[in-house]
Each structure stands twice: as structure tokens, then as C-alpha cells.
């Protein structure tokens, strides 16, 4: 019997990965070239902006989904229900976007990076 460490995957908190393989599972050479021109600080800023945009989009979507709920639900039918429900949907949307969202952030990120690279080339 062999003793030793068992190889187990390390669990880390998930953050959406903005990779160059974001176009239907194929390498996105245009994005890869643009990333070479844009600083890591600008890439991080674009990633945060894209994730925040997706959270805002999801918040709007979740708010519409719960707008018809009257009285029933996690907060019942009290005068403060609307306020608490809006805070709950905001947190849902932020966590959903951080966990990868629905794909809006990756396209926004790609567009931001391509625009920044184009601006650097023309400046």
C-alpha cells in the first residue's frame, strides 16, 4: 500500500475568466493582439466595468421578473416589501454576474479592449 498525498483540486472563489478563447471555443486572435497593446491596469478596469455592466443588466431583468409578485414571497405583504425586494434583487444580480453571468460581460470586455487598443494605435 502506498501512502502519500492525494491529488485533490484546490477550491478557490470563482471569478469570471476573460480569455482569448471566448469566440465559440476558438482562439480570438483579434482580442489576443489587442491585449498586447493594453496595460494590465486597463484590462482590470475593463473587466470590472464589464462585470458591473452585466450586474446592472441582470438587476433590471430580475426587477422585471419580480415586479408582478404581490404579497407572496420572502418578505410577505408589508409596506417595506418593495425596498427589501429591490435590495435582494440587487444582491442576486451582483452575485450572478460575479459567478459568470449570462455572457454579457465577456462581450462588453472584448469590445472595451478592442476599442482601447484601437485608440492607442491612433494616438
Q: What does it look like?
A:
The protein is an all-alpha fold. Helices cover 59% and strands 0% of the residues. The protein contains four helices and no strands. It has helices at 29-37, 40-66, 81-98, 104-122. The longest helix is centred in the middle third of the chain and has 27 residues, at 40-66. It is elongated, with a radius of gyration of 20 Å. The N and C termini lie far apart (66 Å). The model is unreliable at 1-16 (pLDDT under 50).
Task: Name the descriptors.
4 helices; 59% helix
Give a brief description.
It contains 4 helices and no strands. It is an all-alpha fold and 123 residues long.
Lay out the secondary structure.
Layout: H1 29-37, H2 40-66, H3 81-98, H4 104-122
Helix pairs in contact: 1-4, 2-3, 2-4
Strand content: under 5%
Task: Kindly state the number of beta strands.
Answer: 0
Q: Please tally the helical runs, counting DSSP H or I stretches of 4 or more residues.
A: 4
Helix/sheet category = mainly alpha
Distance between the termini: 66 Å
Low-confidence stretches: 1-16
What's the average pLDDT?
77
| Largest β-sheet summary | none
- Round the Cα radius of gyration to an integer and report it: 20 Å
The proportion of residues forming helix, as a percent range, comes to: 55-70%
Compressed to H and E, one letter per element, the order equals HHHH
Structural shape: elongated
